[in-house]
Amino acid sequence: MDNISPFYEKEEKCHLCQQTFSSIKVRNRFVKVMGQDTDLKPKYEDPEINPLLYNVKVCPHCGYSFTDDFSKFFAPGTKNVLKEKISSNWVHQDYGRQRTIHKAINSYKLALYSGLLKKEKHLTLAGLALRTAWLYRDVSETGEEKRFLALAAKQYEEAYINEDLTLTSMSDVKVLYLLAELHVRIDQWDKAVTYFSKVLEKQREPREKQLIEMARDRWYELRDNMKKNEANV
């Protein structure tokens, strides 16, 4: 057991160019979560054994970057767009080794660009933006963190309005909670109030009791902060 590395290589096949490449994954048994932030960011006991760093697969041959959430389907014309915008400008880089946080951030940005060009689902794009923000939080780059939190909020709004969440691993309660929490973090408190209210309207849903309790606690905190701000005006 002591000789087993927390990391292992997995062979992947690029959805775009169909070539194979190796990507690093983390063995589940080594991942230890100590808690989470209010926007559901996990806190890992060992920052280096962080599966978020290896979520994105970057094809070293053509630059197309994707996660398990990406569809293998390409709408007509999108492959040509990806090849023109990404592959034709790609300088060979190998992301198939252990990654620093900044290397991981680059991989998420590549996946976001690929996903936007490919017109991936808003829910998938939101998850990429949120995880990019989380990684920026780990290196205390607050401005970039907020920029990607705002992008995540925009994509989650589009997903909530336009996509069928029943076929995904994300419940509508979870999406609403994240929308509320992200708007708190980007200082759009009025929108946060609206979304927290929508979460609390669903308090009878038994599957998401913990999230609803978290929303109630955050709503009280937000209300107190708003009252303090009004008193200081």
TrEMBL record:
TPR repeats lie at residues 173-206. Signal peptide: none annotated. It comes from the Bacteria. Keywords: TPR repeat. InterPro entries: DUF2225, TPR-like_helical_dom_sf, TPR_rpt. PROSITE patterns: TPR. SMART domains: TPR. Gene3D superfamilies: Tetratricopeptide repeat domain. This is DUF2225 domain-containing protein.
